Prior knowledge:
The complex is a heterodimer. By secondary structure, chain A is of the alpha/beta class. Chain A has one domain (2-186): Rossmann fold (3-Layer(aba) Sandwich), CATH 3.40.50. In chain A, 28% of the residues lie in helices and 29% in strands. Chain A has five helices and ten strands. In chain A, strands 4-2-5-6-1-7-8-9-10 form a nine-stranded mixed sheet, with helices on both faces. Chain B has four domains: 5-149, MutS, DNA mismatch repair protein, domain I, CATH 3.40.1170.60; 162-224; 241-338, DNA polymerase, Y-family, little finger domain (Dna Ligase, domain 1, 2-Layer Sandwich), CATH 3.30.1490.100; 371-492, no CATH class. In chain B, 29% of the residues lie in helices and 29% in strands. Chain B has helices spanning 13-21, 53-57, 66-72, 83-97, 125-139, 152-161, 183-191, 197-202, 205-212, 214-224, 253-273, 306-318, 353-366, and strands spanning 5-9, 36-42, 45-51, 77-80, 104-107, 111-115, 145-149, 241-250, 276-287, 292-303, 326-338, 371-376, 386-390, 409-416, 426-429, 432-445, 461-468, 473-478, 485-490. In chain B, the strands form five sheets. Chain B has a six-stranded antiparallel sheet, with no helix packed on it. In chain B, a hairpin with a 2-residue loop joins strand 2 (36-42) and strand 3. In chain B, helix 9 (205-212) packs across helix 10 (214-224) and helix 11 packs antiparallel against helix 12 (306-318). The chains are: A alpha/beta, B alpha+beta. Chains A and B meet through helix 2, strand 3, helix 3, strand 4 and helix 4 of A and helix 13, strand 12, strand 14, strand 16 and strand 17 of B. Strand 3 of chain A pairs antiparallel with strand 14 of chain B. Chain B: Monomer. Chain B: GO terms for molecular function: damaged DNA binding. Chain B: One of its GO terms (biological process) is DNA repair. Chain B: Keywords: DNA damage.
Amino acid sequence: xxxxxxxxxxxxxxxxxxxxxxxxxxxxxxxxxxxxxxxxxxxxxxxxxxxxxxxxxxxxxxxxxxxxxxxxxxxxxxxxxxxxxxxxxxxxxxxxxxxxxxxxxxxxxxxxxxxxxxxxxxxxxxxxxxxxxxxxxxxxxxxxxxxxxxxxxxxxxxxxxxxxxxxxxxxxxxxxxxxxxxxxxxxxxxxx
Amino acid sequence: xxxxxxxxxxxxxxxxxxxxxxxxxxxxxxxxxxxxxxxxxxxxxxxxxxxxxxxxxxxxxxxxxxxxxxxxxxxxxxxxxxxxxxxxxxxxxxxxxxxxxxxxxxxxxxxxxxxxxxxxxxxxxxxxxxxxxxxxxxxxxxxxxxxxxxxxxxxxxxxxxxxxxxxxxxxxxxxxxxxxxxxxxxxxxxxxxxxxxxxxxxxxxxxxxxxxxxxxxxxxxxxxxxxxxxxxxxxxxxxxxxxxxxxxxxxxxxxxxxxxxxxxxxxxxxxxxxxxxxxxxxxxxxxxxxxxxxxxxxxxxxxxxxxxxxxxxxxxxxxxxxxxxxxxxxxxxxxxxxxxxxxxxxxxxxxxxxxxxxxxxxxxxxxxxxxxxxxxxxxxxxxxxxxxxxxxxxxxxxxxxxxxxxxxxxxxxxxxxxxxxxxxxxxxxxxxxxxxxxxxxxxxxxxxxxxxxxxxxxxxxxxxxxxxxxxxxxxxxxxxxxxxxxxxxxxx
Lengths: 192, 492
């Protein structure tokens, strides 16, 4: 398990100054866990018409809502342009984009360059099957039901790297550790 | 230069202002107007604050209870008074009076003092000036008593107590109250039989000072001109605008930015003098063909550092169409906020400057109001337990947290088909089938009846956290008062 954990630590948090992608039903908790771990200010970009809300009371254990700025872009293009500007400015640690349309190659590459210049991490939250080739890694996250744990502590998830530009594909079963406020890997044997 | 003071007294300023604002027949003469009064709530009752001539003719007076006044005069029309608006109106009148002379000061709550020395000839002498002023005030529907004298005290006495506007008569024949005395001194003088100012002047000064204190002698001296009294003119409101006129039109972006830099330096120096910071800047670029291009910049925080503001203009300036060239630039701070110099200590949390600049940049693209932050709110209702506010006009607040776990994603409640007070074994949501693996609850949340909310019309809600065997952990609720099941959120 220790080896497993160490290996996970080399992949998460994903490499800085690049943009990454995450999809799947638990993509939101991946983004929040990452934001909490990086520690700096987080810019959360989404389109203004989007009806769902992220609930600061719910994600307070993951990420302090005081460190979050929410930007509502009127269109997809404005969202990408704002993300590029924010990544380049270097005054935020993480830029989260909730994407509803596929990101083209040019846009994806521009985001990469901006992230490199501003030394910030970019993260796209995608609907399934909408990735851009320019992304450094793509993760798929899904919740896992686990009958053994108490209901208050049921945060078991399966995180899987489905695309990696510089490394192997790998999958872990992880859970949120409320004490350390970190994601920790659950050993494979513990799964039934 | 010899001082010449014009005093203007508006005895019915509040009611005149209220009547001016009303749509009334202007042709009707003042005497035909119905009785009208403004009331102010003081000492636990509505009292008459100001009234028009018709109301006075009915025997009403200031300070009278409104109910008494209504009994005397059933036709009385009344409105609540607004002293702040009256004060603002008087300032407007003071600004208007600057058409006669530059030196205008306020006199109490209902008067103006003008030092017209050297400017009367522009209106055909002093008589012409006063006549012009009277005519304009009458046309504006304002009752104004106007008089000119050599001193401020004398002018005041003539407007408040002079019955006829005969110049050169002096104030000797006016009652002692015209010296702006406090009521106690006035009564004491009346008791001694000193009714007119001439009576006072006849007495030795030493006795007056011994008996009534130095104030009376001071007032007398001020009215006579032996003691000077100043009129403090109203300060000019600072104007935060600068401009640059160019001998040759420019069109390159770098040139425009260089011009903006020069303007910004001057503007920021102005802002610094007044301890102000700009919130909104407008750059107007006039082209040679008389067209004008405008660049708006809304800042995320009040700022006055030229070096920081200049790069924020880059995006706006890049979009400008210079046409045949730009030959005049104007930069104005259309919205300013006080920005005091603050002491830097170890205890003050420095506001990250880079973040403010980023908010400004993003704000100019997607609108400053669209960049928000979460603030905690005091409510049990999940969607009301936080609020979203504009980030540029707020500071982060804490603490965050709740006693019970809350979902990280909330959406408008979506109905599912299920019955009974216990969570269903199987259900379909968003075209997916789920099997309940474990349900935790219920947590009952009652609607906030003091705030009407359509979505909470269905009454109480019993919330359950349902862990499905498919993996997803959903937040379901049951409404016992109108049986039905809904999904409202999803946990991590």
